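User: For documentation purposes, I need each entry recorded in a consistent format: the amino acid sequence on its own, followed directly by the corresponding structure tokens. There are two entries in this batch. Please keep commentary to a minimum and don't merge the entries.

Assistant: Recorded as requested. Entry 1:
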Amino acid sequence: MQIAMQIAMRVRALTLPSLPSFAALLALLASVAVVACGGTGPRAARPAAGATPEVAPPASIAAPGSATPATPLAPASPTARRVPVVVLDPGHAVDEAGAAAFGVVEKESNLDFAVRVAGMLRERGIEVILTRTADVRAAAPGEQPTREQGYNGTRLDLQARIDLANAARADVFVSLHSNGAPDPEVRGYEVYYNAARPFANESRTLARLLLDGVSTEMRASGYPAMARGAFDDACLKAFQGRCFPLMLLGPSRVTAREEVYRRGGTPEGLGFAPGKDAITLRPTQMPGALVELLFISSPADVALLRDDGARNAMARGVARGVTDFLAQSAQPVQSKQGG
């Protein structure tokens, strides 16, 4: 999740199909660049970075396998009212690549995870919308992706992801990421939610179910379950002495013209009219969580991220968490197959 932590080291590009030995990875660590998604500590995170025709997963990530889950995913409720809508958000895109090390680039890995999870949820008759299906900025319905870069590009991109989810009247919003830290020994997966929203209890439940789902599927597939926890993102980021939650999960907030300048942006590029002193974030209007699937800065975690079976297990875990949440939700839902 996202403080955009920039850790200056040099990326050594490795082809994902041929994973080096663990010892070789450690030897390369000194020359690896990590653009950290989450920073350090148990609550390390960074700002999370539109829909186009769906594409295949990035070629640099192992293709989805055919492994089956240890136990079936939760069935849709037979007392139906409507098809649930889930928005999956593959974090980052374009110039904001996220964490990068050992040949794994987060924006590519995030999209691959989203494609896998989407397929699993669609098999359950759930409507799934991806905020992006290629390496492009997100775009709200009827709009084109922004060409802005830097702070402006990221801000507009995140707002477009929020607007897309709100326009779809989604029941659930899940942003998919991987983490990064200066310490290569930091490992595991974690989930963030925001406790300051009207639906905070639902978001907290979603976060815990996602965490439990990944742990369940990893253990069932013979992989280590390294759950770091589900955390409130209320003060996940700090800028000039102020706390900020993740933009994708947090409540509405006002951004002043001076703050945009301090962050390296241009007010005009963000839609400030002449003489306008601030803009207001339009927040998500549904329960949501941001999942950090392992640390790209950890050689041991990268070995799992490059293991097709482990990737499928984590994707099944996310799908399990979403379906369990929908099964527990107050409003009954129905699969498209007419369950």
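Entry 2:
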Amino acid sequence: MQSWIVRLNHFYQWSLSKASFVDRYVSGSWSLPLKHGILAVGLSVLYSLTQVNHYTSTAIILPADSKSGGMLGSLGGAAAAASALGISVPGQDSSDSAYVDILNSRPVREALLNTVFDFNIKYFYLDINRPRQQTLYRYLRASNMDNAVKTTREFITITRDLKTKILTIQVETKSPQLSQQIAKRLVQLLNDFLLTKSQTKGSVKASFSEKRLQEGRAELDRAEETFRKFLTINRNYAVSPDPEVRLKGLRLENELKLQTQLVTSLALSREDALLQEKNDMPILNILDEGNLPMNKSRPKRATNALLMGVLAFLGTLGWMRRHELKALLVKSLGD
């Protein structure tokens, strides 16, 4: 029982000290700048607690491998040294130089906006997570697709270092899961674009070889059918007493052999073109496909509170000394 009495007494003394603090603050026994500084810090802390954390996920793509010697290979060490210093050799920019434009293109952004993401949103500074499963377009609450595409540029940053050629994708949202999923989705969309939309010399050659092979096989079928019909009537044309029959038989036989050799050559050419197409196909060298951020990237609550307190203190101090400052200003202008 005595312990509870002691605790109540301590609480009473503590409440009196707090009341004395408030009385001294209101009565003006403390300096005005300090009071306003404390008030500004308190308000900034309250404001910071209502701000939502932002999380940044980063994806890193290494430069594409150079598979052809080209002009850079012929220039040797001088071109390599220039490239190392960040000096671009004309006509020797790598195939990944268009990656930034591809990721910023309208089709890629629309595909990103129509993607369904599964993530959590933490409200204010409280540890309350609300799960969401929706498209990025719906999450942004844009009035139309044009505004949505424009909004993505505010939280998605894509840069390419001119010296190292490393491509960096940074996504900053209010959810760590959403930031990571958007970064991974951008990498996937870039890879899909390179595999489906890129047109290389090998792919053009393979397409032409495939078309020519189909034509060659059709010609071979016609030659076989013509020779078959001829053999049905002239089975032993080689020993026929009629020279015209022997000549026509030899001509049809040679035509069949020629078409057979042509189809064989086209088939080999097509296989070579397919291999070249695989070799020419750009490969996306992914160093980091997008991390799951654990720490917030902003806001800097402590810095904001300290800065607001300092500004309030200096502003109040300047207001209190405004007459002296005015006198000094007039004196300086008079001199």
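Summary note for entry 2:
Residues 180 and 274 are 36 Å apart (CA to CA).
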